[in-house]
Design a protein that fits this description.
It catalyses: 4 Fe(II)-[cytochrome c] + O2 + 8 H(+)(in) = 4 Fe(III)-[cytochrome c] + 2 H2O + 4 H(+)(out). It holds the Pfam family COX2_TM. This is Cytochrome c oxidase subunit 2. Subunits I and II form the functional core of the enzyme complex. Electrons originating in cytochrome c are transferred via heme a and Cu(A) to the binuclear center formed by heme a3 and Cu(B). This protein has 354 residues and is an alpha+beta fold. 46% of the residues lie in helices and 16% in strands. It contains ten helices and ten strands. The strands form two sheets. It has a five-stranded mixed sheet with strand order 3-2-1-5-8, with no helix packed on it. The chain starts with a helix and ends in a 5-residue tail after the last helix. The protein binds copper (II) ion (CU). The site of copper (II) ion (CU) has 7 residues, from loops.
Length: 354
């Protein structure tokens, strides 16, 4: 891969130097010698047709990409705010797509229609107030609409409050794994700081032992969430910038060393329900077909895959960034409570001080 990149760069540098020498040569020629190099009507016509060919190429590649790659998009959102978020994205896409399709067609058509021709002179006028007004006011209205709608959605999504009795969970990022901490019976996370980390005593998150709120906290390596219940996440990082990304819930927040960042959402579909979603069923089928081929070739990672929600890191944070993930299980409140009751609290799991 690196060799291909280096070769590409060398070829591009070569082309750039060749073009520059040509420009230099042209600048040295006398006026009468240049005449032989001016494009003829035939050249201009050919370039006009090439413009059309390029237009067909970009339309073709767009249709091809839609047909081939639409299926790799995320399935429908599994969080309460997700639909609103997706609508905003799709409306923005639709507007960009519509405008781009029309402007590209006009751009290339005009390049053909007004190609150079002997004796033809371009019409020149300095300004046209009406035209300028139209092409300014339309984008202003459309963009203002999108931005105001976006800001409104953003404010709604980022309104992190204590209403509706949310569960409080900490997501702790470090190179290269995630740890989750539940706030326990009191639903208040104990104070914590990276300076208090004590590996010898299994205090991996640096929870302040003196803080009574921390004693009932529960530290786990798998995130369980009850369906329909709001969750307030507090994110911390131990080392570098990470980003907690939960794509199926349309949630992402940076984890920044030295500060606590927040995100809140309500999961609305259990893992089981999501596994029944037609888009997910289709994706699992596709993936397992590839995996079966891999298995036949004896390649690793070829065991059949089952859908699960994931928490991923979405900031390139080092060598094993690609594999920094944690499984998320959304289940009924009953199953969730059962699972939580089986977990040890921080107070129980700490090794005694020596
Ligand atoms: Cu990371």
């Amino acid at each position: 891969m690196t060799t291909v990149l280096i070769l590409t760069v060398l070829v591009l540098v070569g082309i750039a130097i060749w073009q520059m020498t040509k420009i230099f040569e042209l600048s040295q020629l006398r006026a009468d010698a240049i005449n032989g190099l001016v494009a003829s009507d035939e050249d201009n016509k050919n370039n006009g047709y090439l413009m059309f060919a390029f237009l067909i190429f970009i339309y073709g590649i767009t249709i091809f990409s839609f047909a081939k790659y639409s299926k790799v998009l995320l399935p429908s959102a599994a969080s309460a705010h997700g639909d609103n978020y997706d609508t905003l994205m799709w409306v923005s896409f639709a507007i960009i797509f519509f405008v781009q399709t029309i402007t590209q067609a006009l751009l290339h058509y005009f390049a053909y229609k007004y190609r150079g021709e002997k004796g033809k002179k371009a019409l020149f006028f300095a300004d046209n107030d009406k035209l300028e007004f139209i092409w300014t006011i339309i984008p202003v209205i459309v963009l203002a609409g999108l931005i105001i709608w976006g800001l409104y959605s953003w404010t709604n999504i980022m309104d992190i409050n204590e209403e509706d009795d949310p569960i409080v969970i900490e997501l702790y990022a470090q190179q290269f794994n995630w740890t989750a901490r539940y706030a326990g019976d009191d639903n208040v996370l104990g104070d914590a700081s990276v300076r208090l980390i004590d590996i010898d005593r299994a205090n991996v998150l640096g929870i302040d032992e003196a803080d009574p709120n921390g004693q009932d906290d529960i530290i786990v390596k798998e995130l369980h969430l009850p369906v329909g219940r709001k969750v307030n996440f507090n994110m911390r990082s131990q080392d570098v910038l990470h980003s907690a990304y939960m794509p199926h819930f349309r949630a992402q927040m940076n984890c920044v060393p030295g500060m606590i960042t927040q995100f809140s959402f309500t999961p609305i579909k259990t893992t089981e329900e999501m596994r029944q979603d037609p888009e997910v069923v289709e994706k699992v089928k596709r993936t397992n077909k590839i995996r079966a081929e891999w298995a036949a070739e004896g390649r690793p990672n070829s065991e059949p895959w089952e859908f699960d929600y994931v928490l991923l890191c979405n900031k390139i944070c080092g060598k094993s960034h690609y594999n920094m993930q944690m499984k998320i299980i959304v289940e009924s409140e009953e199953d969730y409570n059962k699972w939580l009751a089986e977990q040890k609290t921080f107070g129980e799991s700490m090794s005694p001080a020596e």
